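User: structure tokens for this one?
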Amino acid sequence: MRKAPKKNGTSLSDQAYNRLEEDIVTLRLAPGEVLSEAALSESMNIGRTPIREALQRLAREGLVLILPRKGILVSELNPGKQLLLLEVRRELERLLARTGALRASDAERQQLRDIADGMDKAAKSKDDIEFMRLDLMMNDRVAEAAHNEFTNRAIDLMHGLARRFWYSHYKEAADLPLMARLHANMARQIAAGDADKAGKASDDLIDYVESFTRATVNR
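Assistant:
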């Protein structure tokens, strides 16, 4: 397994989660693959307790299945559920964008501007892995900027499944540079503090995701 660089200021559990989440959503760990705490601990050079905590978090998000006395499996893809997920995600993303525009700290606004700049670069280079890393970072920053623990918890349950669906199918039916630009616009509108424009940017992003999802499911 690839070893990602450690991130300053994050716990070992967070490091394990970030690395496993990326490997699952980018299909390095394939749907149905069996995972082992011991093997993951050895390959990632992280203790079993942080690995277990990361796997429990991934299980809550639906990316792995923990089967008592049987093992840990990467969950299967379920395209049919993506449209149901989007019904809820649309409302939560808009709420997060609007409240984030109003409540974000100066530091959070600057982080969102930096992410937007990174998205611009990813769009130009069509770097899908860099886009996925920035997407995860943006999800976290937007949720934090809203300063609402309840919306934060709710959206956390959706992002991993949505990210994996996107990565699994984007080469067939999507435009990565456009997706990156839509993310960048949303990040900048939140950073600018305009709740109406931030909400509109969120809707524009989800509109595109929904059209991509419908094209994929129908195909």
